[in-house]
Design goal:
CATH superfamily of the largest domain: 5'-nuclease
GO molecular function, one term: DNA-directed DNA polymerase activity
CATH architecture of the largest domain: 3-Layer(aba) Sandwich
Keywords: DNA damage, DNA repair, DNA replication, DNA-binding, DNA-directed DNA polymerase, Exonuclease, Hydrolase, Nuclease, Nucleotidyltransferase, Transferase
CATH class of the largest domain: Alpha Beta
Organism: Arsenicitalea aurantiaca
Function: In addition to polymerase activity, this DNA polymerase exhibits 3'-5' and 5'-3' exonuclease activity.
CATH topology of the largest domain: Rossmann fold
Number of helices: 39
InterPro entries: 3'-5'_exonuclease_dom, 5-3_exonucl_a-hlix_arch_N, 5-3_exonuclease, 5-3_exonuclease_C_sf, DNA-dir_DNA_pol_A_CS, DNA-dir_DNA_pol_A_palm_dom, DNA/RNA_pol_sf, DNA_polI_H3TH
Number of strands: 22
Length: 972
DNA sequence: GCAAGGACGTA
DNA sequence: GTACGTCCTTGCA
């Protein structure tokens, strides 16, 4: 038996570094290393013919970075840089290549390739066989046997040397100065800087060999160290005895690896053209394919490229087919099955990134301009860098900048402390902490990098960081955002960096709570000690960079590029500017309203206590329920999920009307007033930013399933309008002096989109003619003329129209209209008969969500429903309704996003001065100079009305209504 | 001090 | 019947 063991890592790194980068033509998958690997493997089998021809063969790979040596010594291989990003995805392909040559690839979790090689080599020798190890790794030299039963072969080409160089005891002696069996003793002393094996400081190979040749082995040497004449050398050995012992353990190869394949299983197999050629074709290695086919005497055209690995042509198919192809790709990605090559690439990128361990102690703290300049140069050379800011708060319009982190590669990250304070940070805030860079120096160095659009800056939640950075003179051009990538791909299911890190990296980041504490004693980030801050901050940048690699690779195979690039990435800076502008709110108006509401609420409260015959907390639904349905014994009480009495507005209004309970009405009125007071008139003034004097909401671009925005702190998307008291709050939202507000809203946008998507001719005609759409619906359904229609009839039709948009059910409609279930069911039936397209649309969405797990908007946004096939019937019904609503709500959301993206350049081109301040789903609020409304409104409405074009040509008119006034109530 | 539930403001 | 965010009470730690 002659066993040939190929050290796969040597081959891979040689192929990678010696060859120019090569990518597969059809899809850009990096394959240069695979190509070199194939060539070397083939050349090896050609070179070893005749007496050196092996009977058994395997290629051994390193599985991952971790082995028992990391347990032994934490620093082992700690300084290894992570694999380059275009190399990592090729690792799995080299295994495929090995298999294609009918050679078993072997790797084992927790073991280095060298250990596996040692175990196989010794097993083969024990069985009386001969072993050749193909490698140039000196760590394997300890295995060489003087009898020639185990030899090494270095095939790496070196100038002026023969192509094949056998390594036996002589060559080992030339390198280590000892026989192979003493190599580990020498390595224990001299260590290895590449693998970070410490050895004894100050002792090199020469000295080590001399010592070992004198004393025989490490233990003998250490026990007789006192005898050494040179005082420095003697002391070093005594001081570092333990380090030497650990080093010996680190360099000693294990022979106890549980071998995945028996020796017999490594017996050589003839190369099978039916396996090899499909692989080579899939890689698109035309030259190698031809050459090997000729050598194997096979016809290369007899086989197709392996479909599991091959690039798949992008088909120019219609919307439906494209959607199905997407679904397939997404499913394959989820299954881990390789289908499209880009899916494969994404999958492998994920695996490779995930395999790189985190080392929080390896991060750098940058405190001087030279170091920062070096990192910036690194970013420029690479073309991308992940950036994260640390600040004193969650409101980017108020928070101060504390530090900035950078990450250039997985594991390679740094933190720049800028605004930390010293001491315990008492009420006086403490002083500026030691060991930080001057803020102005850091800004001067960073500004050109951030402003350079040719260098990609990668953020997690760009909008936040950008808001802070801008205020410190660091505007950003050219960015990616991992939260937006995630949102474009997976919707809002992973909302935070922690969730993304957990899911994609299997990594638990440092919880911010660990640094800041919580509750009353919570610190700000400025008070966090710099070393802790550096670990946390640099880790965030590191995580961001890793997530970017993984998520960005998924964009193409999962067809999310257009949504990410055109809807998400372009919108973020627009929203950032809207947030920075804020809106002016009149404190006095709110204060007056608060007083008024408080007085009237107090009167209601007293009346309620009177009517109930006792004092109770009107704000407690629990207490109220007990009084209404317990003490007063009123009939018709229903219970909530948790068994409490339900006391919602519907229940109370019913009670007031049917049972004539004045208490119920009083509670409704009291709740209305306290809601307005608590949520709006009392709370809003607290949001006025002292620096700007305005209220700055924060929009979330990545929280809503359908693609809408949400607004928080404060939520300016639910400012009251429906009641008279509520509307008064809107009068407090005012234009700055000398300005006006313009409110422009899409009219009936969701019904119009429904008419278009479901292709309802009657609805489309009505919109075309500008009819009252609810009256038209009523007249169609109930056969009543529009002229003189009773308002109740129109109200019912309106409820049905909204019901349709919401994924109607008889139960829900009955609830809404206060009619029996059967009657509501009849309405729906009638509606479907009058507008048959609706039923088809609803059926189609139900079918799609069940088979694909998602539905799409007209602009290609995927809306995922992971539990579409839930075992729970209620949940399934819910998904059905949501999947009917989602394309409608989502298309409207995409439409206004497009309008917002085009608004600023559109206004500028028309030379209109108007600042977009707020978005409320189908409405945009602008601030314009007084008296310019006549010019501004036509431009604004035009941009909104044509926002779908040219992507979509709606078959209904899109109508926008706009008004100007000095406050929001009157402008609406 | 925190999470859950109920209620209610918007499109 | 869809999609959100916030306030308040309650119950548990």
């Amino acid at each position: 038996m002659h066993l040939l063991l190929v050290d796969g890592s040597t081959y891979i790194f040689r192929a990678y570094h010696a060859l120019p980068p090569l990518t597969r033509k059809s899809d850009g998958l990096p394959v240069g290393c695979v190509s070199g690997f194939c060539n070397m493997l083939f050349k090896l089998t050609e070179d070893l013919k005749g007496e050196d021809e092996p009977t058994h063969m395997a290629v051994i790979f390193d599985h991952s970075a971790k082995s028992f040596r990391n347990e032994l010594y934490g620093e082992y291989k700690a300084h290894r840089p992570p694999a380059p990003e275009d190399l990592a995805p090729q690792f799995p392909l080299t295994r495929d290549a090995t298999r294609a040559f009918s050679i078993p690839p072997i790797e084992l979790e927790g073991w280095e390739a060298d250990d596996i090689i040692a175990t196989y080599a010794c097993a083969a020798r024990r069985a009386g066989g001969k072993v050749t190890i193909v490698s140039s790794d000196k760590d394997l030299m300890q295995l060489i046997e003087p009898d020639g039963s185990i030899r090494m072969l270095d095939t790496i080409p070196r100038p002026g040397q023969p192509p094949l160089r056998w390594i036996g005891p002589e060559e080992v002696f030339a390198k280590f100065g000892v026989t192979p069996d003493k190599v580990i003793e020498v390595q224990a002393l001299c260590g290895d800087s590449v693998d970070n094996v410490p050895g004894v400081p100050g002792i090199g190979v020469k000295t080590a060999a001399e010592l070992i040749n004198t004393y025989g082995d490490l233990e003998t040497l250490l026990s007789r160290a006192e005898e050494i004449k040179q005082p420095a050398r003697r002391q070093k050995l005594i001081d570092n005895a333990d380090l030497a012992r650990i080093s010996k353990q680190l360099v000693t190869l294990s022979q106890d690896v549980p071998l995945p394949l028996e020796l017999d299983a490594l017996a050589r197999q003839p190369i099978d053209p039916g396996t090899l050629i499909p692989f080579l074709k899939a890689m698109e290695f035309t030259t190698i394919t031809k050459r090997l086919a000729a050598l194997l005497d096979a016809d290369p055209d007899a086989w197709e490229a392996d479909p599991a690995l091959a690039a798949k042509p992008v088909s120019a198919v219609g919307f439906d087919n494209a959607a199905r192809a997407e679904a397939r790709a997404a499913r394959h990605a989820a299954d881990g099955k390789a289908d499209a090559p880009a899916v494969l690439h994404a999958h492998r990128t994920h695996e490779a990134i995930r395999a790189i361990p985190f080392d929080l102690d390896a991060y750098t703290t940058i405190t001087d301009p030279e170091t920062l300049a070096a990192w910036i140069a690194g970013a420029r050379q690479q073309g991308h860098v992940a950036i994260d800011t640390e600040t004193t708060g969650l409101d980017n319009q108020a928070a101060d900048l504390v530090g900035i982190s950078l990450a250039l590669a997985p594991g390679q990250a740094a933190y720049i402390p800028l605004g930390h304070v010293s001491g315990e940070g008492d009420i006086f805030g403490g002083g500026h902490a030691e060991g930080q860079m001057e803020m102005k120096d850091a800004i001067a160095l960073l500004a050109p990098l951030l402003a350079d659009p040719s260098i990609l800056k990668i953020f997690h939640n760009f909008k936040y960081d950008h808001g802070v950075l801008c205020r410190f003179g660091l505007p950003v051009e050219g960015f990616d955002d991992t939260i937006l990538l995630s949102y474009a791909l997976d919707g809002p299911q992973f909302n935070t960096m922690a969730e993304l890190a957990r899911h994609w990296l299997g990594h638990e980041g440092i919880p911010i709570k660990d640094l800041l504490g919580s509750g009353k004693s919570q610190k700000t980030f400025a008070q966090v000690p710099i070393p802790d801050a550096a670990r946390y901050g640099a880790e965030d940048a590191d995580i961001t960079l890793r997530l970017w690699h993984i998520l960005k690779a998924r964009l193409v195979p999962e067809n999310a590029t257009a949504v990410y690039e055109t809807l998400e990435r372009k919108l973020a800076p627009v929203l950032a500017r809207m947030e920075a502008r804020g809106i002016s709110v009149d404190r006095q108006i709110l204060a007056r309203l608060s007083g008024d509401f408080a007085q009237r609420a107090a009167a209601f409260e007293a009346e309620a206590h009177e009517l109930a015959g006792e004092k109770f907390n009107l704000g407690s639904p629990k207490q109220l329920g007990d009084i209404l349905f317990g003490k007063l014994g009123l009939p018709g009480g229903t219970r909530t999920k948790s068994g409490q009495w339900a006391t919602g507005a519907g229940v109370l209004e019913d009670l007031a009307a049917r049972e004539n309970v004045p208490l119920a009405k009083v509670i409704v009125d009291w709740r209305g007033l306290t809601k307005l007071k608590g949520t709006y008139t009392d709370a809003l003034p607290g949001y006025i930013n002292p620096r700007t004097g305005r209220v700055h909401t924060t929009y979330s671009q990545h929280s809503v399933l359908t693609g809408r925005l949400s607004s928080n702190d404060p939520n300016l998307q639910n400012i009251p309008i429906r009641t008279e008291d509520g509307r008064k709050i809107r009068t407090a939202f005012v234009a700055a002096p000398g300005n006006e507000l313009v409110s422009a809203d899409y009219s009936q946008i969701e019904l119009r989109i429904l008419a278009h998507i479901a292709d309802i001719q009657a609805l489309k005609d009505a919109f075309e003619e500008g009819l009252d759409i609810h009256a038209m619906t009523a007249s169609e359904m109930f056969k009543v003329p529009i002229e003189g229609m009773p308002s109740e009839i129109r109200r019912r039709a309106k409820a049905i129209n909204f019901g349709i948009i919401y994924g109607i059910s008889a139960f829900g409609l009955a609830n809404q209209l206060g009619i029996p279930r059967g009657e509501a069911g009849d309405y729906i039936k009638t509606y479907f008969e009058r507008f048959p397209g609706i039923r088809d649309y609803m059926e189609e969405m139900r079918r799609r969500v069940k088979s694909e797990g998602f539905v799409t908007t007209l602009f290609g946004r995927k809306i995922l429903f992971p539990n579409a096939n839930s075992k729970n019937p209620a949940e399934r019904a819910f998904v059905e309704r949501a999947s009917i609503n989602a394309p409608i709500q989502g298309t409207a959301a995409d439409l206004i996003r497009r309008a917002m993206i085009r608004m600023e350049p559109g206004l500028k081109a028309a030379k209109i001065e108007a600042d977009m301040l707020l978005q409320v789903h189908d409405e945009l609020i602008f601030e314009i100079p007084e008296g310019t409304a006549d010019k501004a409104i036509p431009v604004i409405t035009d941009i909104m009305q044509t926002a779908a074009e040219p992507a979509i040509r709606f078959s209904i008119p899109i109508q926008v209504d706009a008004h100007a006034a000095t406050n929001w109530d009157e402008a609406h």
